[in-house]
Amino acid sequence: MGATEKDIDAIVEERVQAVLDRKLDALVDERVARALAEHEARQAPGQLDRIAIVASKGSLDMAYPPLILATTAAAMGMEAGIFFTFYGLDIINKKKNRSLGVPPVGNPAMPVPVPNIIGMLPGMTSAATMMMKNWMGRVKLQSVPEFLDMALDLDVKLIGCQMTMDVMGTRQSDLIDGVQIGGAATFLEFSSKAKTSLFV
Hints:
The chain is an alpha/beta fold. The protein folds into 2 domains: 1-42; 49-199, Hypothetical Protein Ychn, Chain: A. It has helices at residues 2-42, 60-75, 116-119, 124-138, 144-153, 162-168, 184-191; strands spanning 48-55, 79-84, 157-161, 180-182, 194-199. The chain has a 5-stranded parallel sheet with strand order 4-3-2-1-5, with helices on both faces.
């Protein structure tokens, strides 16, 4: 008799636990579904998993952020595009992108502080550039042309600003292969559906 009561208790306990598990699973599913619905509701209509970046500066230290962000985003499966405007156009210039420099004047972020009066001396930009390239070489960071090749391999959209090209007398043949030429409207159309837009 005692063994039978224990068996009945075990069966009842098992059934109660099964009911509780079903209710808990249903509650979790409901909460997950609600969280997903709220997340989707917060997204702007027509928004894509896309990042749009404006590259406006043409120094060596400012060429890397847009290239690193765009290639990383593309490697993560996002659609990525960079709009190169004003001095940023030098980044995609075949001849200029191999000799981008690091100006020490007015650059308070230099790891070795350089007073502006010293930074203006002839040869200081070359010295600062060489120092930066040595640091990058130590960590085996790719060069700007190598990053551009990687970006194209990852289908990052590279857009050269038509207005800047007109102002600076830059021809399409001056730019690396694979660059699309477009104006502000081209970039704005691309960025209008991007989840993330950045100005560098």
